[in-house]
């Protein structure tokens, strides 16, 4: 059974005090998670250890970094390596978010390097892909995401690919309040799975969790997550509001 994942992407938001109140309210919510359910908090680097400690008694809660660098170590001021994350007990990392691609020039090739290092240091990468609006309007989104997958993921071995999670995030839906319809999400997720199957085989493709991201909120999560190829969500804005994110977690199938 594929893992169903509710991943919070805090981005560059929240003071420590605000983060404390948020995690407390989410942890205290009365819920029974299914066996295959996973909750991930992708938090800014300074909060990684603190959120890990705060959630250490919740065994289906995990903490992710929002990025790591393409190199193992060295003179790269301001960067954080996969090995460092591993050394502080972090087990997840978000890679290739569209904001990293757009504002920090991350390319498919760089992401392939980051993925290899993340896997070498036993991190589960949440690899993000997704098309900008002009590509969607031109109707070439399938080819666009296929190229992202080919250039970043096709160099991985069969063993490695099974350790990653994919997040499909159409850029036109991120932070815009404009969600892809559940039919659009399903169509793209099925396409992504087909691309993975063409390279790694049906069985492996069937086991990979594919999250949807882009204006997921309490009111639409259930409908989107109910699609057969959607295995949860990567959530930005709504993950900063405890009541919203609690409902999103409760919407996992
Ligand atoms: P959003 O962001 O939920 O605010 O649209 C999603 C993301 O960027 O991961």
List its traits.
single chain, 253 residues, alpha/beta, TIM Barrel, eight-stranded parallel barrel, 15% strand, binds 2-phosphoglycolic acid
Could you walk me through the main structural features you see in this protein, from its secondary elements to its overall organization?
With 253 residues, the protein is an alpha/beta fold. The chain has one domain (4-250): Aldolase class I (TIM Barrel), CATH 3.20.20.70. The protein contains twelve helices and eight strands. It has helices at 16-28, 48-54, 82-87, 98-104, 108-120, 133-138, 141-153, 158-161, 182-200, 202-207, 218-225, 242-250; strands at residues 4-9, 37-42, 61-65, 92-95, 124-129, 165-168, 210-213, 232-235. It has an eight-stranded parallel β-barrel, surrounded by six helices. Helix 5 crosses helix 7 (141-153), helix 7 (141-153) packs across helix 9 (182-200) and helix 11 runs parallel beside helix 12 (242-250). It is globular and about 45 Å long. The termini are close together. The relative contact order is 0.16. The chain binds 2-phosphoglycolic acid (PGA). Residues 9, 169, 174-175, 213-216, 234-238 line the site of 2-phosphoglycolic acid.
């Amino acid at each position: 059974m594929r893992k169903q994942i509710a991943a919070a992407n805090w981005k560059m938001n929240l003071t420590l005090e605000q983060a404390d109140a948020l995690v407390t309210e989410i942890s205290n919510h009365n819920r029974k998670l299914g066996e295959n359910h996973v909750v991930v908090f992708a938090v800014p680097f300074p909060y990684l250890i603190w959120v890990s400690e705060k959630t250490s008694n919740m065994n289906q809660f995990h903490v992710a970094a929002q990025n790591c660098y393409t190199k193992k170590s060295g003179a790269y001021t301001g960067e954080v390596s996969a090995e460092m994350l591993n050394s502080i007990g972090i087990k997840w990392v978000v890679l290739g978010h569209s904001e990293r691609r757009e504002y920090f020039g991350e390319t498919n090739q760089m992401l392939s390097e980051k993925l290899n290092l993340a896997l070498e240091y036993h991190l589960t990468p949440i690899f993000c892909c997704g098309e900008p609006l002009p590509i969607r309007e031109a109707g070439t989104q399938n080819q666009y995401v296929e190229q992202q997958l080919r250039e970043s993921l096709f160099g991985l071995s069969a063993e490695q690919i099974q350790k990653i999670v994919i997040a499909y995030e159409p850029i036109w839906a991120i932070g815009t309040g404009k969600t892809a319809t559940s039919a659009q999400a399903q169509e793209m997720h099925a396409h992504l799975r087909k691309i993975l199957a063409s390279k790694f085989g049906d069985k492996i493709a069937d086991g990979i969790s594919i999250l949807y991201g882009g204006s997921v909120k309490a009111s639409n999560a259930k409908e989107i997550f109910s699609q057969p190829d959607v295995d949860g969500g990567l959530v930005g804005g709504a993950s900063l509001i405890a009541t919203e994110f609690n409902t999103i977690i409760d919407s996992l199938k």
